[in-house]
Design brief:
The structure is a single chain. The protein is an alpha/beta fold. The chain has one domain: LigB-like (Protocatechuate 4,5-dioxygenase, Chain B, 3-Layer(aba) Sandwich), CATH 3.40.830. Helix content is about 35%, strand content about 25%. It is built from 7 helices and 9 strands; from the N terminus they run βααββββαββααααββ. The chain has helices at about 15-20, 25-40, 85-95, 140-155, 155-160, 165-170, 175-185; strands spanning about 1-10, 45-50, 60, 65, 75, 100-105, 115-120, 190-200, 205-214. A 7-stranded mixed sheet has the order 3-6-2-7-1-9-8, sandwiched between helices. A hairpin with a 6-residue loop joins strand 8 (about 190-200) and strand 9. Helix 2 packs across helix 3. The chain is globular.
Length: about 210
């Protein structure tokens, strides 16, 4: 049973050692992530599953990841260094929050046995400005706003119905994971909170948390 879900972005700049005085928006983004993860863990889950996009795979509590590729000696999760960036950032947020309980990582449908909390690592469009990684696409802001509205209202159906072809054109890499969140949340009574919606550096990010019953 899924009791809660939190959506966070996974830019490397979320980590202070990488950011090194980057824009104030990044510090505010991290504060929002900390709050959302805290709300997730406050629901007393028996396990946390970190979910992100990527080639299908599942990893257990021993899995970990590193940010050495970004010039810093930061490790998260278990002893190994096999997790992708999104999963590594999820592990780092859980470590930062002091989570000592069961955890796993997946890029597929999550195991929802017991009281499961999902930490969904998902970025929006990377085409929000002329300086964005994918340059400006006028459709990008509207797409990200649609996701923000769904996260703010707990609209699982809207996430399921996201246009994944458009998302691919907009370099919104988190869209498939958000659609998966919608799919596993359908029918639940959701209390939703959108904590942050921003697009520093031309990439859309959201931070939200859902508490679910039913």
């Amino acid at each position: 049973m899924i009791v809660a879900a939190t959506v966070c972005p996974h830019p490397p700049l979320l980590v202070p050692e990488v950011a090194r005085g980057a824009a104030p928006e990044v510090a505010a983004l991290l504060d929002a992530c900390d709050g959302a993860v805290g709300a997730l863990l406050a629901c007393a889950p028996t396990q946390v599953v970190v979910v992100t996009a990527g080639a299908p795979g599942c990893w257990g509590v021993a899995a970990g990841g590193s940010l050495r590729g970004y010039g810093v000696d930061v490790h998260a999760g278990g002893a190994s260094e096999e997790l992708s960036l999104g999963l590594t950032l999820g592990a780092w947020l859980l470590d930062r929050a002091g989570w000592q309980g069961s955890r796993s990582y997946t890029t597929a449908a999550p195991d929802t046995s017991g009281r499961t909390a999902l930490l969904v690592m998902a970025d929006g469009s990377a085409r929000r400005s002329e300086k964005a990684p994918g340059y400006l696409d006028p459709r990008a802001e509207g797409f990200d706003s649609t996701v923000a509205a769904a996260l703010a209202t707990g609209d699982a159906d809207a996430l399921v119905e996201l246009d994944l072809d458009l998302a691919e054109e907009l370099l919104a890499t988190g869209a498939p994971t958000l659609a998966l969140l919608g799919s596993v949340s359908k029918g639940a009574d959701i209390t939703a909170r959108l904590r942050c919606e921003t697009a520093p550096f031309g990439v859309g990010y959201w931070v939200a948390d859902w508490v679910m019953t039913g």
